[in-house]
Amino acid sequence: GLSDREVRERIAGDVLSRVAAITFTEAAAAEMSTRVGRGLVDLVAGNPVQGLREDLLGLDAGERQIRARALVETLDRLAVSTIHAWCRRLLARYALECGWHPGFEVDADGRLEEAVLRQRVDTALREAYREGVGSDLFELAVAGHGPAAIQEAVSGLVHAGVDGNRLSQPVFSPERVASVLEPMRELLEDLDRAIGPRLDTVGGGAKVTRDTRAAVSAGIDRIGAFAVEDLEAESAAAMLEAWIEAFGEVFDETAIKRLAKWGKGGFNGTEEDAFGGQADAVAHAARAAAEALPGIVGCRPVAFERARRALVPLVEEVCEEMRAQGVASFDWLLIQARNLLRDRPDVRSRVRREIDQLLVDEFQDTSALQCEIVRFLALEAGAANRPSLFLVGDPKQSIYGWRQADLRAYDAFVAEVKAAGGEGALLTVNYRSVPGILEEVAKVIEPVMHEQEGMQPRFAPLVVAPRFEAADSGEAEAVAPVEYWLSWRRDPASGEFESGLYADPVVHLEAGFLAADLRRQHDEFGASWSDMAILLRGATSLDRILEALRIQGVPYAVERDRSYYRRREVIDAAGLVRAVIDPHDSVALVTLLRSSAVGVPDAAWLPLWRRDFPERWSALHAARPEVLAELRSMVR
Fold first, then answer.
1. How far, in Å, CA of 182 to CA of 189, rounded?
2. E strands along 83-134, which residues?
3. What span, in angstroms and rounded, lies between the C-alpha atoms of 589 and 576?
4. pLDDT tens-digit profile of 185-216?
C-alpha cells in the first residue's frame, strides 16, 4: 500500500543508515555532512557535482534526480561522526557486553578522572609512607617522584590503555634487551662506515670531533661485549643499569649533541673538509643514532622496575573505579571499543552486518589504536559480510602526533588494505591554490622531500583545478607570484649584509619593506587595496606592521586585533557613546571629559564634582537647552 515515493524514501533511508562515515574532528564531520547534502541537492537540480563522474552512476539524468531527491529527504539517516562519537554509540549500545553502565558519562574535561586519580594516589601514598623503607612508592618519593609525578604517570598509563597483565612481570628479559641493543649497534655501525678513516688525521684543535668519533667505535665495542644472555630475572635491572652507566660515559651529553648537530648538517670547517662528498651519508647516519641514543643512556631500569611494581596496581584500581562510576575519557572510548570488538566476535559480526559502506576521512591522523578498530570492522581475514572500506588520507598532512597520530601505522594499514585486494588512487587536483603557489611548492619541496617509510611520504605534485588554470594575478610581469625576503640590513660603508639580527630589528625591517611594497603594488601596478591581505602566524608583530602601514598611508582592516580597543581614539569614542546611552555611567563620563574632544584638565575635577556636575549630567535625558547651557558654563 506504499506509494512509489514512500518506497524510494524507505530504500534511501535504509541505504544511508548503512553508511558509517568517520572523520577526525567535529568540524570535519560537519563539513562532510554539508558537502554530501550540497552534492545531492546539485544532483536534484541537474547541476554537475565536483569530483563525481556521472558516467560511473549508470543512470539517466531523470533517474539520478529521483534517487537524489529521495536521499535528500532522508539525509538525517546518514551518520557522519568523529571516531570518538562512533565509539561512544557503540559502547552505549553494548554496555552490558563490555561491563559498562549503559548511562556512562564521557569525561570531556578530565575533572572526574582527575578526582578518581587523586583519591586513589593519595590513599596509596599514605599507606606507603606509613610502611616506609621497602615500599616502592616510598622509594620513588625519596628519589623525588612525589604525588604529582605519580598521578601524572598513572594518568598516562590509563590514557594509553596499558593492560595491567602486560606489566605484571619484569620487562628486562634478554629478548627485550637484545631487541633494543642490536638495532642500536647497527645504527652505530652504519655511522662508523659512513665516517670511515676520514677523521683519523684531524688535528689537536678538534677535540670534540675526535672524541665523538672515538665514542662511536667504543659504543659498538661496548654493545658487542655485553652478555645479554646472562641477564637473570632477579638481577637483570641492576646489571643493565650498571652497563648503561658505563655506556653513558662513552656517549656523554657532548657526544650526543655533536651527533645531533651532524644529523642536521651542522659540520664545522674541519669536519666539512674531512667528510667531503660523504657529508650527506654521515648526516643521515648521525641523525638516526642521535635520535636513538637518549633512549638508552637515559634509561634507568632499577627505577623503572620499582615504578612498574608500584603503578600497575594503581592503574588497575583507577580503571576499575572509573568503570564502576560510569566515567570514560576520550582515550578510553577508543580503548574500550577496540577491546569490545577484539574480545567479542559475536558483537564484531553484528556490527559488521549493519554496515555496507565504511568511510574514514583524514586517515593520516589516525593512531595505531584507531587502525585496530577499522581493521576489526573491515579487514578481518575470512570474515563474512565485511563492509566496503573507503579511506581518504594525505600523509603529508599528518600533524596530530601529539594525539598519537602515527604515520607508521598509516603506512602499514594502507599496505594491509592493498594486500587484501584494495586499490589506491591519488587525488592530485588542488581546488584551493592558483598555479603560482603550486609551482613554487613543487620547486622548493620536491628536491628535499625524500620518501622514508613511516616517517615521510614521497612528494606528489598537485594539479591546478580547471577554474584556476587561467588565473591571472593582475600584477606586472616583473613581480613574481612568490617571493622570498631575507631580513638583512646592509652596512652603508662596506656594502656587506649584517646577519644575526635580533627579533625586534627583523620585525621592524619586514614591516617597513612590506608596507612599502604594498604601496608600490597600488601606485605603480594598479592593484586594489581590497585585493591585498597580510597573513601572520601570530599577533606579536602586529603593532609594528600596522605602524608601518600608517606611515605608508596604506588603509587596512584588522581581524582579531586585540589592540584595537586599547587605542586612545577608540577609548574616547567608546566613552562618548556610553556616556550618551547611560548618563549614570561615571567611568564613561570621566573618559569623555578627559578626551581630546573636551579636554578637562585634572585640576578641574574637584571643583566640577563639588558643583554636582555628574548629577546635572544625568539629568540630560532629553533636549533640555537650559541644563546643557548650565553644564557648559560650569565646565568653562
1. 11
2. 105-106
3. 8
4. 999 999 999 999 988 888 767 889 999 999 99
User: Which of 314, 329, 312 has the alpha carbon at shortest distance from 100?
Assistant: 329
Grid cell of 27 as nine digits = 568540524
pTM of the model: 0.65
* Secondary structure (H, E, C), 183-252: HHHHHHHHHHHHHCCCCCCCCCCCHHHHHHHHHHHHHHHHHHHCCHHHCCCCCHHHHHHHHHHHHHHHCC
How many angstroms separate the CA atoms of 438 and 463, rounded?
Answer: 8
Which segments within 32-170 are labelled E, that is strand? 79-82, 105-106
CA-to-CA dists, residue 297 to 156, 209, 239, 255, 396, angstroms: 22, 20, 14, 12, 32
* Distance, CA of 525 to CA of 480 (rounded, Å): 13
**Other CB atoms within 10 A of residue 440 CB:** 16
Block residue for cell numbers 674541519: 270
**133-184 confidence digits (pLDDT tens):** 888 888 888 888 888 889 888 888 887 777 667 777 778 888 888 888 899 9
Q: Among candidates 256, 247, 224, which has minimal Cα distance to 301? A: 247
Start-to-end Cα distance in the chain = 90
Beta bridge partners of 80: 21
Q: How many helices (H) and strands (E) are present in the chain, helices listed first?
A: 26, 10
The CA–CA distances, whole Å, from 131 to 127, 142, 241, 435 equal: 6, 13, 27, 71
CA distance 428 to 51: 11
Which residues make beta-bridge pairs with 532? none
> Which residues, in sequence order, are CB contacts of 577 under 8 Å at separation 6+?
none
Question: Which candidate, 396, 472, 471, 469, places its Cα nearest to that of 427?
Answer: 396
Closest among 130, 129, 169, 165 to 150, alpha carbons compared: 129
67 phi, psi to nearest 5 deg: -70, -40
Give the type of residue at 261.
K
Measured between alpha carbons, how far is 264 from 559 in angstroms, rounded to an integer? 38
Say if CB 174 and CB 229 are below 8 A apart. yes
DSSP letter assigned to residue 103 = T
Q: Which three cell numbers stand for residue 538?
A: 601570530
Nearest to 527 by CA among 480, 473, 485, 478: 473
258, 212 Cβ separation under 8 angstroms: yes
Q: CA torsion, points 607, 610, 613, 619, in degrees to nearest 10?
A: -170
